[in-house]
Amino acid sequence: MKLWDISKIIYREILFKSIVETTVRKKPEDIVKSVNSYMWLNKIVVTVFICAMPIYVALNPSIFNCSIFLVYLLFMFVFFFLQIVTSFVSHSFDFLYLLPLSQRDISKIRMLTFLRIFDLPLLAVVLVSPLAFGLFVSPLSALWTLLGVITAELLAVAIVFRLARFFYSKIAYSTGGWKTLLRMFYMIAWSVSAFGFYFIAVFMTELPKIHVDLRGWDFVFPICFGYVMSGSLNSLALASSLAYLIFAVVLFNRTLPIVNERVVITTARTTSISIKRTHPIFGILKKDLKLISRSPAHSMLLLFPIIEGLIFVKDAIYSTSMIMIAIVLVVFVAYGVEREYTKILPIDFWTLTAGKTLLLVVVYVTSVVCATVVRSLIGVSFSPVGFAQIPSVVAMGVFVALIYDRLGVKRDIYTGMCFLILILIPCLILAYTPLVVGLIVGMVTNVNPIVTSFVIGLIELLTIVAIAEFSHN
Amino acid sequence: MLTINNLTVKYGDKIAVGSISLKVREGEVFGLLGPNGAGKTSTLKAIVGLVPYQGEIRLFGKPIDVKAKNLIGYVPEEFMLLESLTPKEFFEFIASVRRIENVNDRVEKLVKAFGIKQYLETPITALSMGTKQKVTIISALLHDPPLLILDEPLNGLDAKSSKILKEIIAKHVKRGGAVIFSTHIMEIAEKLCDEIAVINHGKMIAKGSIEELREIALTDGSLEEIFLKLTGQMEEIDEILRVL
């Protein structure tokens, strides 16, 4: 049996486990059947999302746009890879060691399995990008686009596995006392690294507005590729691009042995048996915070709203609306955390919803406070718009709790992309309706838009609570 | 204490449990025996609300709602632990949700009994199978529930912990509690159970005390012999041994 075929078996097993956990009420045979079709649907959604970018850039092929495209591509793959990679680092795949396979073979199987999960988006972007550049720019641009995309993909895989190896045991298994503080530090470092390319992409998007000249930067990745892809060929950009491609290939090859290294989990000595009992709602909050903060894939999402609020900090309304988008990702993750387990405990719908929503409000308020503090530091006047949105955030929480209560779904962002979209749209309607109505009413009348937003948010909340109460009686 | 009437559990079209009825009284250990895939685990899962079912399940005469889950301690066949938490954090969560009074005393006694003090601050995922089982058992006993539902509770336990768990079960029923448990170890069922139900292919094929089961199976042998006769496996074994 070839390594590629073995990787297919493991790939199916991983998908099966990720789905069977969440749909225990389905017949196992139905789950097996639906595993592939569901995964393909997710892959298609992600692929369409990613492939829209190169087509737009090929129609506007400036050095800036081409460079930004590669950074975004790198960020997207890093972001999606990180959703999956920690389960690769944490799973031992012990049965592979029972087979007559070398360590290198096992590494290759694991890497192939990982790539199988992302096969369609990885392949599609490799095909679509050069095709778009070949059609709209030039055949030479198409060739350099192909090399640029391959470089970005290889770098993304290498970076993700190295990040996961470094941070996994530190985030997942440091417990107690000062180690908790240290874990928080690693969690922030992990999130900042994971979102690093996003920061760069946002920063680069701002550069043309301040007329920054890229001359002299043509040896830096991805600007060198920006030059060659856009047709502004020069020898330094050309040589640098080739050098980055070779670097990416070498880094990818050197990452292979890492894929197979096992994470060592350290044990801590017990100091005292002191159990701190709290109210059930806080018990749920505490448990979820611990579970999420120990999952590298989830913990970075917890910091995402804060990061979004700070990136767009100058404008209070824009900053708040970006926080709201990021909050939907937090809702998606937080509400699915270990939901099955609660079925055997005396937790009713409202206690569970209160615990989960409290987590959401804590993350949201922290993000708004951080953005507000930074705004005051840079001299922007205070705006309570973020605080006026709190009822909407709570409404969003109750709404998602209701959906999860009915569907009982728990997935990560990549394998649950379709479900995420299903909750994303109504959540964004709930989030933006108060903002938009507030602004319109403010323009038409003299009523304060923030007061209007707050009132609309309250109405949303009361409506959702009434629906939830009605559906539970 | 626990009454089950016409319990049916289906997974799609497949009937895992078909119209089972039984009663578990105060001060009684009720054993569920059956070959692999007979429907024992599905029956126990239905009682705790982990799988949808048809029929009636009543605890102290009332349907099992959210509040009634505080009257049940459940040890599942497969671990249902929050593995990135430490046992201490896990017990804190259980104690908070179940609003357990004097939880420290209780945890201290149980942790000492099962000898897991040194593992309290180690992530559950890093624990051995036996230690994970001990954490599961402690979390089920923490609130001292009147009904214990134990699905293969001795799995992975060492001799000392098995003995302690058996003593805990005996003490629990002496105080008026009840236990319903499934096991494959016939000697343990024979020693512990006041009443036994034998399930095969989702149907209850016999129920009663060991003496009553002997009468049904027409044998004076051990529980193992009774069980094999009732499930029709005795002939199969004879046939297999002949071929071997």
Structure description:
The complex is a heterodimer of chains A (473) and B (244). Chain A contains 19 helices and no strands. Chain A is mainly alpha-helical. Chain A folds into two domains: 268 residues, no CATH class; 198 residues, no CATH class. In chain A, α6 packs antiparallel against α7, α10 packs across α11 and α15 packs antiparallel against α17. Chain B has a six-stranded mixed beta sheet, with helices on both faces. Chain B has a four-stranded antiparallel beta sheet with strand order 2-1-4-5, covered by helices on one side. Chain B has one domain: 3-Layer(aba) Sandwich (Rossmann fold). The radius of gyration of chain B is 19 Å and the shape is globular. The chains are: A mainly alpha (473), B alpha/beta (244).
Q: Do you know the CATH topology of chain B? A: Rossmann fold
Provide the helix percentage of chain A: over 70%
Report the portion of residues of chain B in β strands: 15-25%
Global geometry of chain A: globular
- Per CATH, the class of chain B reads Alpha Beta
The residue ranges of chain A in which pLDDT falls below 50 over 5 or more consecutive positions are none
Strand order in the largest sheet of chain B: 6-7-8-3-9-10
What's the N-to-C terminus distance of chain B?
Answer: 47 Å
Helix-strand pattern of chain A: HHHHHHHHHHHHHHHHHHH
Q: By CATH's scheme, which homologous superfamily of chain B applies? A: P-loop containing nucleotide triphosphate hydrolases
Provide the succession of SSEs of chain B.
Answer: EEEHEEEHHHEHEHEEHHH
Coarse structural class of chain A: mainly alpha
Most strands sheet of chain A: none
Uncertain stretches of chain B: none
Distance between the terminal alpha carbons of chain A, to the nearest Å?
56 Å
- Structural classification of chain B: alpha/beta
Strand content of chain A: under 5%
Number of strands of chain B: 10
Give the domain tally of chain A. 2
Q: Largest interface by residue count? A: A-B, 44 and 48 residues
As a whole number of angstroms, the C-alpha radius of gyration of chain A is 24 Å
